[in-house]
Amino acid sequence: MKGYLRGMFYWVCCLEKLFFSILGGVVVVFAVFAFVDKDMEQFYRWTLSYMPMMGVIFFIAGGINIANEQIPMVMSLGTTRKEAAWGVIIAMHGTALQFWILTIVYNAFLPPTYVVDSYVKVCGVLFLFGCAGGNGLGAVVLRFGSKVGLRVYLCSLFLLVGGGIFIVKLAGAAAVISFISSMGVLVAAILFDAAVSAVYRMSIRNYEVRV
Amino acid sequence: MNEFLTQEKSIYLQISEMIENDILRDIILEEEKVPSTNELAKMYAINPATAAKGVNILVDRDVLYKKRGIGMFVATGAKEKIKCCRQEEFYSNYIKKLLEEAESIGISKEEVIRMIRENH
Amino acid sequence: MKEERLTGKGIVKTYGKKDVLHNVDLELEKGKIYGLIGRNGAGKTTLLSILSAQNPATKGTVDYNGMPVWENREALDHICFSREINPVNNSKANGYRAKDYLKAASIYMPGWDQEFADRLVKEFELDVKKRAAKMSKGMLSMITIIIALASKADYTFLDEPVAGLDVVMREYFYRTLLEEFTNSGRTFVISTHIIEEAADVFEEVIMLDKGNVILKENTQELLGRARHISGLAENVDRASAGLLTFHEETMGRSKGVTVLLKEGEKIEGGTELSVQPMNLQQVFVALCGKNEN
User: Fold this and answer.
1) In the A/C pair of chains, how many CB contacts fall below 8 A?
2) Which chain C residues have a beta carbon less than 8 Å from that of A210?
3) Contacts made by residues B67-70, CB under 8 angstroms, sequence distance 24+
4) Each residue of C49-100: pLDDT tens digit?
5) What is the value of pTM for the model shown?
6) Which of B117, C142, C211, C235 is the most exposed place for a label (fewest CB within 10 A)?
């Protein structure tokens, strides 16, 4: 038990550092808009669309980064593969939750004109997919190495961003939002996430620490 | 005690020899404490087990004895014992080689004896 | 009272079609400093990796006090393999700093001695704020050394710890290692290329050649039975007949050969032969070096 807690503490530290640096960035931009530009409209539009996207990218990049750099490091410090895997899975989900809470708080303070329907729901689903995607890429790296992982990452990033923009342009933002916030998609996200977590645990089974 | 270690002989033998030399030279007197194996290991940057091996040789020869809880001490009469031991080994350590070398370059035993008599 | 041991039995490691370790049996006792010496590619890092469960063996077992080390938190808490830090993975400018490594080590190693680590950082004059990608090889070695020593693990492995350190720092390392060993009685396994410097520190030496352990012996005893015989070729052959010989070198009529004497064996000869003692490095080269024959 101690091992798990010990290990998770480290992951959490790393993810939290990143989280707060992003938050800090947002606060700075907010300050600029609020006090310098005095034009909050831009800020709200910007954060509404970019924050969920940034969140998803954070998880995907974070997942691959953890597998590339941090797992080898903590494994060379004597942790077991089981502890490492669960530490990562829990920490990533914890951070996803954190992002989601931030979204809820943000949504609560948003001036009514800017509130988008189901914004919180959509963000939640996106973060869950992002978390699963990040861990999925991490699993690829752990099992097949970082070169393969990088290729998969670039391909999926391209597909994700490109595909996302294409779909939104095609179907319109409102349709996309209502689709994502549907129950079916939420269930799919949860199942996908569970499956990826299991795969992650499996892919680290025979992991070799190599210089 | 401040000699360097050489490659010529096993390290633990050198350790025991150095302690014996110090005893002969009155650097350590009888009934005085000898550096501990850990101190010796630190001094010469060697493994403590090796230092212990060297010290144990001297314990076996009754040159040193152990006072439990305090350390290793030079036994009374150690100086004489060391001289005696080295006198016995003098032939095989020095004379034998000298005679072999002399023979290999064609100097007879009598000539060697003459050299010793004349140059001493 | 069970004796503390780290035991490897029948360790085989295969990459693709190639066997990197062949049936290695190894027993590491408590409270000894072992030297693991071998050429590049002999399998030293792989062996240490497998012994510390950082790498799965293709075949064979590794046990600590009778329990397998693989994925075993209890056993791994007593083992530390401080491996070479390779900053290539940390290529971005926001790579890890020295203090990040030390912080991670302090979290993951149950016996971590922060005071000791701080003292070593000061003695090594390490700039903990420097990023790994910008560190010299020597600095990276210092971090691995500090992590290994401050881990206070019962079995601590170091892989080429002195790479990149200048001679003064190397000597400082050996002294610090001996001091820590004397104070704590931990087991250390040090793999190194720079054999002669470290030879006095090793109580036992393990020689690895092409994936096989060809020798595991008390260093002083090994040196006690290793001799180099040289002289006229026929005299050398006569004197070494029936003895275990290695690494013959001939030049004109002279010949030189290394022998390892077994219990009770002697070298018969007088001044027509030179019989010289050897240092560990010379023995290693004789046993594992390139042979012209």
Assistant:
1) 64
2) 55
3) B70/B33
4) 999 999 999 999 999 999 999 999 999 999 999 988 876 655 555 577 888 8
5) 0.88
6) B117
